[in-house]
Design brief:
Largest sheet: 6 strands, parallel
CATH topology: TIM Barrel
Number of domains: 1
Structural class: alpha/beta
Strand content: 5-15%
CATH superfamily: Metal-dependent hydrolases
CATH class: Alpha Beta
Helix content: 40-55%
Shape: globular
């Protein structure tokens, strides 16, 4: 039999547990309420790459209602209240100088086909208005971001063509340098800098992205590129899936001084959930992801924060954020930490919508500006897989003329020269 003190002690523990449970339920209820009022927009999801690797983009072999080998499927999307998603059209760096453009077009195609196959779940979107329209229809707005400048094959024409196909952001680099920009591995010492940030063509590209209304994504670039673009761009920038360097000093994350410049630029940093970028280790939990939200808010304000889960692009995700169904738990955690309704709504989607609208405004203001058609210098992209059609041919001397001939033509030329010399 319990003593009087033991009974009261047990009742006190039960009372505290009940109070905690009710408080947690209150935070979750508030999270779901806010997510019903403001669209949750995530900056980066690699489901299209999983479709490539698991099914070679054969959507007829996939059922996104029952697919369980990925972080993302339609039931998980609905449970997570995921209102808008930038799907990554990603191809690896080893496609650079080979078939990167073709493979990227195929990833753009599979995103379009995904929306066509599941129109009740997805609405293809290319504008800030489209996101809100999809939200009002209870469908997930599906946007495209090309992850890695190598996908362009150093062509402004490719950039414009991808925009016409619905691409709305370009990550300037992935984990390799392009012929015009340095990637984050330069800062880690794993790769040498080739351009000290951006080349002249890289700067051209920034202005052309402003002109056409393509969001500039600085995830994966070197710190020098971050700073250069923040100085050059006429429009706000995004980090589609990066976290805070001060919390986890990984070179894929954003340093505090850059966070403050993003604040000045009125851009956005969309927090990545990958364990390696959350804790700089193999393990992480939901609370540690929230630490990044808190830090960015403390350094540069709540107006630059968003969600950039990187689901299906990483092998390790935090406990409590195992898949896309878990977003409400993170929102509830922010509320538990004292975030106001307005601050949470800003992070959910209001910040990204503001950035997107300003990028569209800058595009419209540059409507009378002609497209940039100055190509990258051929010597900066010359390789065995690239032809030089359209580039001017230098005036060769006579020796150069002979050396440029085919072997048969060379033999005939030398023979004819000998005959003419003999006859003279």
């Amino acid at each position: 039999m319990l003593s009087g003190g033991s009974v009261w002690g047990t009742l006190l523990v039960l009372s505290c547990a009940l109070k905690l449970s009710l408080t947690q339920d209150e935070h979750m209820n508030n999270a779901l309420r806010l997510m019903s009022e403001t669209p949750l927009i995530d900056g980066h999801n690699d489901l299209p790459w999983q479709l490539r690797m698991k099914f070679n983009n054969q959507l007829n072999k996939v059922d996104l209602y029952t697919l369980n080998s990925t972080h993302t499927n339609i039931p998980k999307i609905r449970e997570g209240r995921l209102a808008a998603q930038f799907w990554a059209a990603y191809v690896p760096c080893d496609t650079q100088y080979k078939d990167a453009a073709r493979q990227t077009l195929e990833q753009i195609d599979v995103i379009h086909r995904m929306c066509m196959k599941y129109p009740e779940a997805f609405m293809f979107a290319t504008s800030s208005k489209d996101i809100l329209d999809a939200f009002s229809q209870n469908r997930t707005a599906s946007l495209i971001g090309v992850e890695g400048g190598h996908s362009l094959d150093s062509s402004l024409g490719s950039l414009r063509t991808m925009y016409h196909l619905g691409v709305r952001y370009l990550t300037l680099t992935h984990s390799c340098n392009t012929p015009w920009a340095d990637n984050w591995l330069v800062d880690s010492g794993a790769e040498p800098s080739q351009h000290n940030g951006l080349s002249e063509f890289g700067k051209q590209l920034i202005f052309e992205m402003n002109r056409i209304g393509m969001l500039i994504d600085l995830a994966h670039v070197s710190e020098k590129v971050m700073n250069q673009v923040l100085e050059l761009s006429k429009a706000p920038v995004i980090f589609s899936h990066s976290s805070a360097y001060a919390v986890c000093p990984h070179k894929r994350n954003v340093p505090d001084d850059v966070l403050r410049k993003v604040q000045d630029n009125k851009g956005i940093v969309m927090v990545n959930f990958y364990n390696d970028y959350v804790t700089c280790s193999n393990t992480a939990n939901l609370s540690q992801v929230a630490d990044h939200f808190d830090h960015i808010k403390n350094v540069a304000g709540h107006s630059i924060i968003g969600f950039g889960g990187d689901y299906d692009g990483v092998g390790r995700v935090p406990v409590g954020l195992e898949d896309v169904s878990k977003y409400p738990a993170l929102v509830a955690e922010l509320l538990r930490r004292g975030w106001t309704d307005a601050e949470v709504k800003a992070a959910l989607g209001d910040n990204l919508l503001r950035v997107f609208r300003e990028v569209e405004r800058v595009r419209d203001s540059l409507n009378g500006t002609a497209p940039d058609d100055l190509p990258i210098p051929y010597e900066e992209v010359k390789n065995d897989c690239r032809t030089s059609y359209g580039y001017p041919v230098p005036n060769p001397d006579s020796a150069g003329t002979i050396l440029s001939l085919s072997p048969l033509a060379l033999v005939l030329t030398l023979t004819l020269s000998s005959l003419l010399s003999w006859s003279l």
